């Protein structure tokens, strides 16, 4: 039997614990670059976000990711996240 534990992560917007696979990781490197980490393995400070359009819009409105990562985020990053969420829905 393969009874591996499913790694859970907390969405910074909803506060829900979800399997890591259901969340997207946003990462800030030491250089201060913020990017979407689809592998979940990049070095740096990470924040997990539910891949849901409403969730992403709320994160942007309340500046949650910027606060969590202690970095300023470009609007393009949010656009990219929304595109990812839309792709995921299909």
Automatic annotation (TrEMBL):
It comes from the Bacteria. Residues 9-82 form the YlxR domain. CDD domains: YlxR. InterPro entries: YlxR, YlxR-like_sf, YlxR_dom. Gene3D superfamilies: YlxR-like. Pfam families: YlxR. NCBIfam families: RNA_bind_RnpM. This is YlxR family protein. It comes from Metabacillus fastidiosus. The lineage of its organism: Bacteria, Bacillati, Bacillota, Bacilli, Bacillales.
């Amino acid at each position: 039997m393969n009874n591996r534990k499913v790694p859970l992560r907390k969405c910074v917007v909803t506060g829900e614990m979800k399997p890591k696979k259901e969340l997207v990781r946003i990462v800030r490197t030491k250089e201060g670059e913020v990017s979407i980490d689809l592998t979940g393995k990049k070095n740096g400070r990470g924040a997990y976000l539910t891949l849901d359009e409403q969730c992403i819009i709320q994160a942007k409105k309340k500046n949650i990711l910027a606060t969590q990562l202690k970095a300023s985020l470009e609007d393009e990053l949010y656009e990219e996240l929304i595109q990812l969420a839309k792709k995921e829905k299909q």
